[in-house]
């Protein structure tokens, strides 16, 4: 709940993200609408449902499906509450802006995987073009409406958007532009690698408010600006950047804050009554007499899947008692397949799984089961509850909501979390067994310990889970939205104190 004086309640809200919360497609039976699965939809769909507003996103479904006369779509379909404004992009733009600059440069750059950056001359211009297109769509959405709307941009697909918005005449002067960066912000040395480092920073400084999950990312950002933009002045303590403004625009002031997103704790718990954990043993041909080690992620190199498989193999090599007594179930579906690095990674993961199974598998035991098909929420919750341990082995991860979902789904029950210390979530979750995924023997030992805890040290397992549950509850997604609300309010207080308002 937001307080009565909340800016979010009083002012029009426009959310911008690359992924749409609902995808419309034309089928033989009419129009099918599918709700997106990601953490962003979970976080912001309830807010817009309650407050109304507009969500601007890349139209990934059928352009002609469900369009009103003014080109917008009301969602959610069962109880229309807000406008979805879809931005349709040419295939070549998607190729170069989304698969290209966003996911072949910015993603590896922000995750510190510089060797995986692949850059083509067509990528950057398409990224600029897409940001321009979104700026037009946002202005269309706010024109003639509320004189002081709040525009809340999400993520790394839109580093230039706030700056492009500033240059549009249709944007009301009193609009607040804010952005949340959901992936890590790396060190200044990593950012320097990009030939567009300055443009990215200047682009982001068009925001009044800029959020990151962790104080460390915020610190990195402020330091990056300090080192790479000589014209900007940075108050690291207060998190305020004053920049020159670009082109004809006025000098700008950006407030930078840190607050991690979370999950909707109640929806992970509610499922207790739905699908039985036991049903998943049958579905995935698992033997309930064996321990179950679960992994859930997109097939992304940042998730450290290959490192984890190596560690699991090492466990079977060095601790033969686990042979035939543990199954590692990996729910990891393909993602971003147009990017060659991702296709290569998928292939390698499949080969590695096959090799481990060939080496250790027996007639009635498959050590690693890899599920590539999408798993719906209820089924996922049943899996979380059935698993003795969940392992998150990210080489780098902005936060990691799967770790939180696992904890919430098991609260009051059993289950141990093995969590990479390189995932942002490790900064806020207390009670996990931490690993460095590059440490093969250490990760194997942590998995061994997690599975053993579940078998014969119930007290410690329970203590860990209780402390984890407590930290997950403290970071419920509602708290993330309220913190944004408070930050927007602080902007106004700051401005009043300076005499600008
Ligand atoms: C991860 C990141 C998000 C990002 C999303 C995009 O979940 O943590 O920050 O927005 O990937 O995924 P997509 O499938 O849309 O490329």
UniProtKB/TrEMBL annotation:
UniProt-listed Pfam families: Glyco_transf_20
CDD domains from the UniProt entry: GT20_TPS (cd03788)
Gene Ontology molecular function terms on file: alpha,alpha-trehalose-phosphate synthase (UDP-forming) activity
Superkingdom of source: Archaea
Database matches in InterPro entries: Glyco_trans_20 (IPR001830)
GO biological process assignments: trehalose biosynthetic process
Record's protein name: Trehalose-6-phosphate synthase
